[in-house]
Structures are given as C-alpha cells and as structure tokens.
Amino acid sequence: MGRFYPRLNDTVMTVKKTLQINLKTIPETGLDIAIDLGPEWFGRWREEDPGLEFADARINGQVSLSKHGPDILVRGSLSGQMELACSRCLESFAAPAAIDFDLLLVPGPPTSAAADAELSPTDLDLDYYTGESVDLESLLREQIILMMPLKPLCDENCQGLCPRCGANLSRETCTCSTDTVNSPFARLAKLKI
C-alpha cells in the first residue's frame, strides 16, 4: 500500500491554522506532507509576530508523520533561503537554511513536575499534543527559528559599522579619528609601569 502525499502550498496556508493534522487521517503506513512555505506564509507569520528577525524566506521540504500507539513520530527535512540582516553591518542578505528533525509527540500536556525539571538531550526531541490533531504549523515555526544563526553575517570578513559615524566599513573608509577615546580609563593607557 503506497503512502499518501498531500501538497500544502502558499494559497492553502494563508488561512490561519491550516496545518492542523487530524490524527485519524494518518494511515497505518504513515503520512508524508510536502512543504512549500513562501512569502504569503511568512507574511502572515510576520503579522502575528512583528519581532521576527528575518525579512523574507522561501522554505521547502517534507514532513512524515507515523503513529506508534498513541505517540506520533514527526520526521522532517526543511531547506531554502532566509533574508537576514547582518549582525555587523545591518545589510540584508540571503542566507541558506537547512534542518533535519525528529520529534516524538506524546499525548497530554506536560505535568507540572516535568515542566519544571531540567531537560535532558532526549527531552529536546519530545513534545506534547492534546486532542485529536497535531499543530504542524507551530512545529514548523519552531524548526525554522532553530535554523536561524545566532549572529548572522553577510560575510565572514564583514567589518561592520563605524561606531562614531555609522559608515559601512566593508564598503567605505570613514574619516573618524581613532585617537579620540571618550573613556574614563583613557588615561590608564598612557601609564608606564
């Protein structure tokens, strides 16, 4: 028996919570879903969370869901490009992004003791679901956030901005004096020991 391959595209995913997967629709052989997340999906996400640290993205991939008793194994692979701002010069640039993930979803909310406990490495691949559906959208958002670098750089050799005049030092030379230091410790540099 073959696997079922629905395709979720930008027009379908503009409706809020379209990635709710009913557990009854997952066949015994598993459910494979092709993912195509484009500007409309990320635009809606940006409306819901204006603090996103990327301007635009195009992410494709596949997610497989399979039942193991009451637990659901979610395996996925996402790749594409994200438009990020360089942490040194603040210029926008397209950065490649890719992630493979495995999550085990178990029924019920975490107990208060489990929520307060320190996470072990195996707990990082564990999540919870309630009811008769899995919110694949929130899982995808979490994985996309994990793909983002902590300090995105447009180039390893990016010189950043001049702290005085704001010139992009990778593209131009600023005329700011490097001798003037407005620090209360500047006189200590002149001491000879």
Elements, N to C (H/E): EHEEHEEEHEEH
Give the terminus-to-terminus CA distance.
82 Å
How would you describe the shape?
elongated
Label the structural class: alpha/beta
Number of domains: 2
Overall strand count: 8
Number of helices: 4
Unreliable sequence segments: 1-17
Radius of gyration: 23 Å
In spatial order, strands of the major sheet run: 1-3-4-5-6-7
Largest sheet: 6 strands, mixed
Q: Helical amount among residues, as a percent range?
A: 10-25%
Per DSSP, what share of the residues sits in E-state strands of 2 or more residues? Answer: 25-35%
Estimate the mean pLDDT confidence: 81
Break the fold down into its secondary structure elements and pairings.
Blueprint (H helix, E strand, L loop, with lengths): L6 E2 L1 H4 L6 E3 L8 E7 L1 H10 L5 E15 L2 E15 L6 E16 L4 H5 L9 E4 L3 E3 H12 L46
Parallel strand pairs: 1-3, 6-7
Antiparallel strand pairs: 2-8, 3-4, 4-5, 5-6
Summarize the entry for a quick read.
The chain is an alpha/beta fold.
Features:
193 residues, alpha/beta, two-stranded antiparallel ribbon, 4 helices, disordered N terminus
Characterization of this structure:
By secondary structure, this protein is α/β, with parallel strands linked by helices. The protein has 2 domains: 7-157, no CATH class; 159-193, no CATH class. The protein contains 4 helices and 8 strands, in the order βαββαβββαββα. The strands form 2 sheets. A 6-stranded mixed sheet has the order 1-3-4-5-6-7. The protein has a two-stranded antiparallel ribbon with strand order 2-8. The radius of gyration is 23 Å and the shape is elongated. The model is unreliable at 1-17 (pLDDT under 50).
